[in-house]
From TrEMBL:
This is Glutamine--fructose-6-phosphate aminotransferase [isomerizing]. Residues 192-219 form a coiled coil. It is an enzyme of class 2 (transferase). Homodimer. GO terms for cellular component: cytosol. The chain holds residues 244 to 600 of 600 of the full protein. Keywords: Aminotransferase, Coiled coil, Cytoplasm, Glutamine amidotransferase, Repeat, Transferase. It comes from Halobacillus karajensis. It comes from the Bacteria. It catalyses: D-fructose 6-phosphate + L-glutamine = D-glucosamine 6-phosphate + L-glutamate.
């Protein structure tokens, strides 16, 4: 139920700190160790490459999952859009492990890959918010997202839950392989939950940004580098699906290879700047678009922020920034849709779970 909330989407955005805390609880035992099905641990240890299969927002979570698993657990990862997998099927490694990420657990495109790969004998791990779902039943193993029912068509809390669970999985695998890390996922997720809480209290400021940048525009660009780029992809998907503004996410450095031609006087460009190693170059990209008339908005992180940034998120671990920086984007999309009189929870042409290929 929505309770006092006008829309499920807003309620689900606000629930994110609780979901993260729930995940910390569910994936920890009394000894503060990671609690995970030992068979999943073995499958992760045994594989030589991971293939993440997902669609839409879940695919965007998979992109960060690749960073977690490669950087922390040292296993190569490929992330594939489910509907494209069979056309552009990669050469598989000797011991692949397939990881399906799906909020609903019913996405036909992802299921079709699962069925084909199971026929070839490749093990399947599903990350889903619905444990009894098709993708969960048909996989060998399941990790539950614990996000609670997600009703709004636009996915919000499932996305951050997926990234949190992927971080835990990556660290568990690293530990199982004897890799020493100075990264405690539960501690970092605790910091993330508090940061999220602080942001859900800044709605007025984000509503104002949405009003100022997005009430009448036809289009909008999101730019970022590194993992900020992935968050930009998610931000643009959120915005386009509920506000119908044509929105695209681009890698900061790729913009000048064509897309910059679309920048006109007043075109909104939302730039993410939460990573120290790209802070300088992404700000350079902002200057490039501003020189062509863009109306830019920089979302940065405390410690890396500069005067004039539109919004600053609290400081969290580098790898964890997407879990926090997506919140202002979700809220900006929400308010943009609201200001434009769109049906926030049930956007046109979309269904909550896509059960056709
Ligand atoms: C976007 C959105 C969709 C889903 C996609 C996959 O807000 O909700 O892009 O993420 O249809 O759905 P699941 O995760 O249920 O497989």
């Amino acid at each position: 139920e929505k309770g006092t909330y006008p829309h499920f989407m807003l309620k689900e955005i606000d629930e994110q700190p609780f979901v993260i805390r729930k995940i910390i609880q569910e994936y920890q035992n009394e000894k503060d160790e990671i609690k995970l099905d030992p068979e999943i641990r073995e499958a992760m240890k045994a594989c030589d490459r991971i293939y993440i299969i997902a669609a839409g927002t879940s695919y965007h979570a998979g992109l960060l999952g690749k960073q977690f698993i490669e950087k922390l657990a040292n296993i190569p990862v490929e992330v594939h859009v489910a509907s494209e997998f069979s056309y552009n099927m990669p050469l598989l490694s000797e011991k692949p492990l397939f990881v399906y990420i799906s909020q609903s657990g019913e996405t036909a495109d992802s299921r079709s890959v699962l069925v084909q790969m199971k026929e070839l004998g490749h093990p399947a791990l599903t990350l889903t918010n619905v444990p009894g779902s098709t993708l969960s039943r048909e996989a060998d193993f399941t990790m539950h997202l614990h996000a609670g029912p997600e009703i709004a068509v636009a996915s919000t809390k499932a996305y951050t839950a997926q990234m949190a669970v992927l971080a835990i999985l990556a660290v568990d695998t690293a530990r199982a392989k004897g890799i020493k890390l100075d990264f405690d996922p539960m501690q970092e997720l605790g910091i993330v939950a508090s940061a999220m809480e602080a942001l859900t209290d800044q709605k007025e400021q984000l509503e104002e940004l949405a009003r100022n940048y997005l009430s009448t525009t036809r289009n909008c660009f999101f730019i970022g580098r590194g993992i900020d780029y992935y968050v930009g992809l998610e931000g643009s998907l959120k915005l386009k699906e509920i506000s119908y503004i044509q929105a695209e996410g681009f890698a900061g450095g790729e913009l000048k290879h064509g897309t910059i031609a679309l920048i006109e006087d007043g075109t909104p460009v939302i730039a993410l700047a939460t990573q120290e190693n790209v802070n300088y170059s992404i700000r350079g990209n902002v200057q490039e678009v501003e020189a062509r008339g863009a109306k830019s908005m920089i979302i940065s992180m405390k410690g890396l922020d500069k005067e004039g940034d539109a919004f600053v998120i609290p400081h969290v671990h580098d790898l964890m920034t997407p879990l926090v920086s997506v919140l202002p984007l979700q809220l900006i999309s929400y308010y943009a849709a609201l200001h434009r009189d769109c049906d926030v929870d049930k956007p046109r042409n979309l269904a909550k779970s896509v059960t056709v290929e």
